[in-house]
Design brief:
Layout: H1 3-16, H2 26-40, E1 81-85, H3 90-101, E2 105-110, E3 125-128, H4 134-143, E4 147-150, H5 157-162, H6 164-185, E5 189-195, H7 218-237, E6 240-246, E7 248-250, H8 262-272, E8 276-279, E9 285-286, E10 288-290, H9 291-301, E11 308-312, E12 318-319, H10 320-330, E13 337-340, H11 355-361, H12 369-388
Parallel strand pairs: 1-2, 1-4, 2-3, 4-5, 5-6, 6-11, 7-10, 8-13
Antiparallel strand pairs: 9-12
């Protein structure tokens, strides 16, 4: 060992052994070691004997996993801790399974009012609690997750109109409870599931995130309120956030209840052998987004999109009549349709520009409506077969 190297090792050992008249944080020690090794190309074995506990330099140790930055690739590596509220629901369960598959430690908070624990990955940990409860606050306080995905909500538009107080208790007060729990537990970031319904019936060919909100249901209003609370929690307390405004999400496992469930309603009616209900003339349009693309956007939000409101959409709209035509091409039997009066609170047209999301999340949707519906239809067929099979 050269004199200069011995001198540097002695200096570092002096810091580590506490000879200086002030405490040295462990992270400073690691920085010193890594800097020394990186700049001098000296084996860190020369330095480790002087440490109170062995430390590996993550810049050079191949055993330390590194996270892949592209959101549509597998996110390998660090064992970060995630909480998903509403994780036993349709979108939530897909997200939970995606997070577990990427190697995260995943905890689910769900009151199971509409959620199904059977959907969850076996490695996910379920905590049965209402988001607007002290029990949930206690869970987050103990878990101290890195990121909280807040998907739990009362998502039935018609019920929000009939029971606005119930809707506000779940969606507004529940969100405040989650935010305050995050603040007290030192959570780094919250990812919030919002809705395209916040815009109401704005006359735009494509909506951008800068367009004014104009909710026409209490459900959409509660999401606007949640977004505003999140912004203020960042302003006052520094809680990082990404707000994702979903288009009409569809895919395997969706139930007929909840926002944007037209695809699931049609699947349920096919199973029952009943006509497909269309509320209005069927010319109303929606930006249908496949659930796997929604999961990818959420995964990308772990690393990107801080302090952003972003659309999770395809940027293309389709009418409900077009959706029926597509299902008719997939389904071998004749499909009948019932045209019924339009529902109060439903919007007429919705198409969301996703350019900002592509840029900030480094994300793009992978499934066209045709591709997503083919996968969804195959799931419907599998469900029909399993439910019609004789029990043993």
């Amino acid at each position: 060992m050269t004199k200069s190297v011995k001198k540097r090792v002695h200096i570092i050992s002096t810091f580590v052994q506490g000879s200086v008249p002030f405490p040295i944080p462990s992270f400073v020690k690691v920085m010193l070691i890594c800097s020394f090794h990186y700049n001098r190309n000296v084996n860190t074995d020369l330095i480790r004997p002087f440490l109170r506990s062995p430390v590996k330099c993550p810049m050079h140790d191949p055993s330390v996993p590194r996270r892949i930055m592209h959101p549509n690739q597998r996110l390998e590596g660090l064992r970060m801790k995630m909480v998903v509220t509403g994780g036993a629901g349709f979108i939530g369960s897909h997200l939970v399974n995606g997070l577990v598959n990427q190697g995260y430690e995943v905890h689910v908070i769900d009151n199971l009012t509409t959620g199904d624990p059977g959907r969850l990955h076996s490695e996910a940990i379920l905590h049965v609690a209402d988001v607007n409860s002290q029990q949930t606050t206690a869970y987050i306080s103990v878990l101290k997750p890195d990121v909280v995905f807040h998907l739990a909500a009362q998502a039935d538009v018609q019920r929000s109109i009939q029971e606005p107080r119930l809707d506000a208790d779940a969606n507004v007060m529940g969100t405040i409870n989650i935010l305050d729990a995050c603040r007290k537990a030192g959570v780094r970031k919250i990812v919030f599931a919002s809705t395209s319904g916040v815009y109401g019936d704005l006359e735009r060919s494509q909506l951008t995130e800068d367009d004014p909100v104009n909710p026409v249901s209490f459900y959409a209003l509660s999401k606007v309120a949640g977004e505003q609370y999140i912004r203020l929690y960042h302003r006052f307390f520094g809680l990082q956030y990404t707000i994702l405004r979903y288009g009409n999400v569809y895919g395997p496992g969706q139930t007929a209840k909840g926002e944007g469930g037209v695809v699931a309603v049609f699947g349920e009616r096919l199973y029952q052998g009943k006509p497909l209900p269309i509320y209005g003339d069927g010319l109303q349009t929606r930006d249908f987004i496949y659930v796997k693309d929604v999961v990818d956007a959420n995964l990308a939000s772990i690393l990107h999109g801080d302090q952003s409101v972003l659309h999770v959409s395809t940027g293309t709209d389709h009418s409900v009549n077009t959706l029926v035509d597509l299902i008719s091409r997939l389904h071998p039997d004749r499909i009948d349709v019932d045209y019924l009066p339009a529902k109060i609170g439903d919007i007429r047209h919705s198409c969301l520009n996703n350019e900002r999301t592509r840029e900030r999340l480094r994300w793009s949707p992978l499934f066209s409506l045709e591709e997503g519906m083919e996968e969804t239809y195959r799931h419907w067929l599998g469900t029909l077969v399993s439910q019609s099979a004789p029990s043993k």
